[in-house]
Structure formats: structure tokens, C-alpha cells
From TrEMBL:
Entries under InterPro entries matching the protein: Znf_DskA_TraR
Segments forming domain Zinc finger DksA/TraR C4-type: 57-89
Protein name: TraR/DksA C4-type zinc finger protein
Keywords: Metal-binding, Zinc, Zinc-finger
Amino acid sequence: MAEIRSPRLLMEECRRYSAQMSELRTLLEERLHAAVGEAATIEVAEIEAALERMERGLYGTCTRCEAFLPLDRLRRMPHVQVCASCAGETRLSA
Ligand SMILES: [Zn+2]
């Protein structure tokens, strides 16, 4: 059964979420800078796509199965928008 949460808790959650998003945006922008400097075209495209997803409020979900991506994964690879299993990181067979 869904719990009714107090507006204050919701506000706190919302604030935490925005703080995480701005942290990840900063990471993305730093990476974008570095990738442009290295002329890493593919990475630039991935980072730009991730920033665009952020603009549309889609950032942080897998582009294939729509699962929420864990925050530690986003911190490590902020431009990667597929979950570990869709990325084949727990590879069975391709
Ligand atoms: Zn997935």
C-alpha cells in the first residue's frame, strides 16, 4: 500500500534529486570539455545526447529497458545511459 508522505519529505527528496542532477550535469560538462579537447567525437556525441536527455527529464533511465540507473554508475560514467545488463556487462552471450 502506498504511503502518503508529508510535503516536507517530498520537498527534501526533490531537493536531493536536483542536487544530484546538478552534480551529474557538472560531471557531464567537464567530460564534454575534455572530450572536445581530445577530439573524441563518439564520446562528445554521447555526452551531448545525455545532456539533451537531462533537458527533457529523461536522464538517469536506461534507453533500452527504462530501468533507473544507479547513482554510482552515473557518477562513474555520466554519459552512459544504458543499464549494466543492457550494456552486456554481465555478459552471457551476444
Ligand atoms: Zn537496461
